[in-house]
Amino acid sequence: MIQLMETVQATLQQSHTMALLATTGPISVGCILAWLLDDELQVLDIVVHPAHRRQGIGKALLKVMLTQAQERGCTLATLEVSKDNAAAVQSWGSSKFTCARATTKMGLMPC
């Protein structure tokens, strides 16, 4: 666990890292972590506490992150979702993300 925290701390200290935290009062309920590399935003992770899912928190985090990235010159955003994660595929598809490629453990496959 300590090594994981050190990895997260090191990632957050990089100048191209962007992160947002969603809270309800003093409780953290979600977060988003991304890298802004040149004009591309690479969304690394979006996490919402299970008790707070399906309330629009993930979409709200993504919307704010995309706005902040555009203000910094971003023209392209990417994220990876497991094709087996139906809720995430539906959610990000409704956020106007499209399938650029699908992967399996063995490699690329058509979308």
Question: Largest beta sheet: what is the strand line-up?
Answer: 1-2-3-4
Global geometry: globular
* Rounded Rg: 15 Å
The helix-and-strand class reads: alpha+beta
Report on the architecture of this protein.
The chain contains 3 helices and 6 strands. With 111 residues, it is an alpha+beta fold. It folds into 2 domains: 2-79, 3-Layer(aba) Sandwich (Aminopeptidase); 82-111, no CATH class. A 4-stranded mixed beta sheet has the order 1-2-3-4, with helices on one face. Strands 5-6 form a two-stranded antiparallel sheet. A hairpin with a 2-residue loop joins strand 5 (102-104) and strand 6 (107-109). It is globular.
Question: Care to give the gist of this entry?
Answer:
This protein is of the alpha+beta class and 111 residues long. It has helices at 2-12, 57-71, 86-94; strands at residues 17-24, 27-37, 40-48, 76-79, 102-104, 107-109.
For this entry, give a set of tags.
single chain, 111 residues, alpha+beta, Aminopeptidase, 2 domains, four-stranded mixed β-sheet, two-stranded antiparallel ribbon, 3 helices, 34% strand, globular, disordered C terminus
